[in-house]
Amino acid sequence: MPVADLLAAHADAWARATRAPFLDAVRDGSLPPAAFDTWLVQDAHFLGDLLRFQARLLARAPRSAQAVLADGCVALVGELDWFTRVAAERDLDLAAPQLPATIAYGDLLYRLDAADVATALTALWAVERAYLDAWSAARPGAGQYRPFVAHWTTPGFAGYVAALEAAADGAAVDGAPADAAVFLEVAEAEAAFWEMAR
Q: What is the domain partition of the chain in residue ranges?
């Protein structure tokens, strides 16, 4: 089963992961800036964890998946630089402690180091697809949030997510079905991450 089939097979879990009240409030402008700032700091922590996971995955991935993973690592470094600039503009402390949802998501990524490559690629695709779908649902974003929504829904990012999908599908062994368990773990972690800042 291609990884994209997981979206329909587990539609309720995916809706919880990508259609959160937090995102509704970004779209309509009702989200308090303090809640958004909390989320930004935690997302910066998560991106650091994601970069470490992806770099380790790159080292053991099949040759066919290495280019997209390497490009993703470079993009994550750039995104962390962008978060540093945003934090300075908004007077945020990126050294603030991680909240429980962030710690749990990072633990999931760490556990995926022991998973087979196909499972890890499915998880990475799910992480990035969730981010794209969630922010796309918040479009165009209201007021101060609109530039952030635009930043996280670029055609380039959509192309990257599509390339990860192809890599995950290509890593499947002998047509084995995509790993629904890890997809559901990512969906649950995403739902908790949106709820954390509210």
A: 5-196
CA 171, 70, 170 angle in degrees (round to 5)? 15
The pLDDT, as a whole number, for residue 101 is: 97
> Euclidean distance between the first and final Cα of the chain, in Å?
36
pLDDT of residue 1: 77
Average pLDDT per 10 consecutive residues for the chain, totaling 198 residues? 92 96 96 96 98 97 95 97 97 97 97 94 97 97 95 96 95 70 96 91
Residue 91 — φ and ψ, nearest 5°? 55, 50
Instruction: Answer yes or no: are the C-beta atoms of 122 and 3 closer than 8 Å.
Output: yes
Task: Please give the Cα distance from 116 to 42 (Å, whole number).
Answer: 28
Res 159: pLDDT: 97
Q: Token match 């994550």: residue?
A: 76
| Spatial distance between the Cα atoms of 131 and 149, rounded to a whole number of angstroms | 11
Burial class of residue 147 (count of CB atoms within 10 Å of its CB; 0-12, 13-18, 19+):
exposed
pTM for the full predicted model: 0.95
CB 9 within 8 A of CB 182: no
> Could you tell me the CATH superfamily of domain 5-196?
Heme oxygenase-like (1.20.910.10)
Tokens for 71, please give them. Answer: 């490009």
Q: Are 1 and 178 in contact (CB under 8 A)?
A: yes
DSSP, collapsed to helix, strand or coil, labels residue 142 as coil
Which residue, among 191, 80, 171, has the nearest Cα to 131 in the 3D structure?
191
